[in-house]
Design brief:
44% helix; EC 3.3.2.9; Epoxide hydrolase; 3 domains; alpha/beta; AB_hydrolase_fold; disordered N terminus; 455 residues; globular; nine-stranded mixed sheet; Rossmann fold; hydrolase; signal
């Protein structure tokens, strides 16, 4: 009898949710205006595309070396806490020593300059991007433009290992990728806005204009973290330009998604497979983990400039703040390890490359403002009140910080053609580039298939 009552309650709840969902999906899509975000006169926009190389002055490197040498003594960690109080300062000490004695920026600078980089002014901002074209493309193989978008606390550095996997012709494919990888505004070598309002949705407009500037009328987009929000907005606003979207963080925060999540508390099998149930239920654990891991988000969505002062002044503090995320967001179990598990998927050079991009550009404060502009001012940044109509694919990684099963997010995508699961965490391109590249190839192969005739 109890099971029958639960079933009836679920049916009623889902019916109500479906009505709410349909009401909300009737909202028209409002494309953000093409705001001028930079200084200067909009009538004098410089439309040139200028080659760019990373060249950090010696005085910045010497200043960094002195700050690392003169860092104050760390508070010793409590016994046996590993990474549960944030980054373990014994681990941090090891990384800072590596940074000071073994990390060679000039060598890493050459590594980062291996791919062609450019800048161009879009809506008043100098936007930095990597642009790699495939070589030796045989006759009959089509080149497909692919925009790759990173998130926080990442950078374009996340994509360096995946670039050759996407731009090299494969024997069984009739296409190959030409990749465009921009730095988000206010991140790394891309200029930050001088006025409020530049969030994920507005960044989608900038990147549409970047692709237009490069001469691409139709293209594919891919992203995780903020890249997921930006590329989703591009697919929503410009379905005539975006041929398909691939995400490695698929999220819906709609009324229907929330209702399904609650319904699963009563009947989990309606929402998630048994092997993945522990990632969501009981909901008390799910929300406890959110409270544990997302404190940074509230801070950055409300007071980014305050924490930015501290992080921008101390390279050690910046490293601690960022590296902690590369531990817990890659695998939550790594909190139980003294070494944070970092060398399982990364090297210290890779991690420090990413930190250095923030440090040498003074961009940590401006990078965090996307939280204030998107979450604090636009609470529907991950909502699906408007459905994405272009062909879509999702790669689900086991340790993604925001895990949702396909049953919850699928209503956001009208043409969801592929969902695959892989071992890995939040920084998929950086951690497991082979798996992510494989999924992108599979997805675009399906996107490129001609439509089947109706029977």
């Amino acid at each position: 009898m109890n099971a029958l009552i639960k079933f009836i309650v679920l049916l009623i709840a889902l019916a109500i949710g479906n009505v709410i969902y349909k009401i909300n999906t009737k909202e028209s899509v409002k494309v953000p205006p093409e705001t001028w975000w930079g200084p200067g006169d909009p009538s004098k926009e410089d439309t040139r595309i200028v080659p760019f190389k990373i060249q950090v002055p010696n005085q910045i490197l010497e200043d960094l070396r002195q700050r690392l040498k003169n860092a104050r003594k760390f508070a010793p960690p409590l016994e046996g806490v590993h990474q549960h109080y944030g980054i373990n300062t014994n681990l941090l000490k090891e990384i800072v020593n590596y940074w000071l004695t073994k990390y060679d920026w000039r060598e890493r600078e050459n590594f980062l300059n291996q791919y062609p980089q450019f800048k161009t002014n879009i809506q008043g901002l100098d936007v930095h991007f990597i642009h790699v074209k495939p070589k030796n493309v045989p006759s009959g193989v089509k080149t497909q433009p692919l925009l790759l978008v990173h998130g926080w606390p990442g950078s374009v550095r996340e994509f360096y290992e995946i670039i050759p996997l996407l731009t090299t012709v494969q024997k069984d494919k009739k296409f190959v990728f030409e990749v465009i990888i921009p730095s988000l505004p206010g991140y790394g070598f891309s200029q930050a806005a001088v006025r409020p309002g530049l969030g994920a949705h507005q960044t989608a407009v900038i990147f549409k204009n970047l692709m237009k500037r490069l001469g691409f009328d139709r293209y594919y987009v891919q992203g995780g973290d903020w890249g997921s929000a930006v590329t989703s907005a591009m697919a929503l606003y410009y379905p005539d330009r975006v041929k398909g979207i691939h995400l490695n963080m698929c999220v819906s925060n709609s009324y229907l998604a929330k209702l399904k999540l609650l319904a699963g508390s009563v009947w989990p099998s309606l929402v998630v497979e048994e092997k993945q149930k522990h990632k969501i239920y009981p909901l008390s654990n799910y929300f406890s983990n959110a409270l544990l891991e997302f404190g940074y988000m509230h801070l950055q969505a409300t007071k980014p400039d305050t924490i930015g002062v501290a992080l921008n002044d101390s390279p050690v503090g910046l490293a601690a703040y960022i590296i902690e995320k590369f531990t817990t967001w890659t695998n939550p179990e790594w909190k139980n390890r003294a070494d944070g598990g970092l060398l399982e998927r990364f090297t210290y050079d890779k991690i420090l490359d990413n930190i250095m991009i923030y440090w040498v550009t003074n961009s940590i404060t401006t990078s965090m403002r996307i939280y204030a502009e998107s979450i604090n001012k636009e609470s529907n940044v991950f909502d699906d009140r408007a459905v994405i109509t272009v062909p879509s694919a999702c790669a689900l990684f086991d340790h993604e910080i925001i895990y949702q099963p396909v049953s919850i997010f699928k209503d956001r995508f009208a043409k969801l053609v592929q969902v695959n699961e892989y071992d890995g965490g939040h920084f998929a391109a950086f951690e497991v580039p082979e798996s992510l590249a494989k999924d992108i190839w599979l997805a675009v192969s399906k996107f490129e298939e001609p439509p089947k005739p109706n029977k």
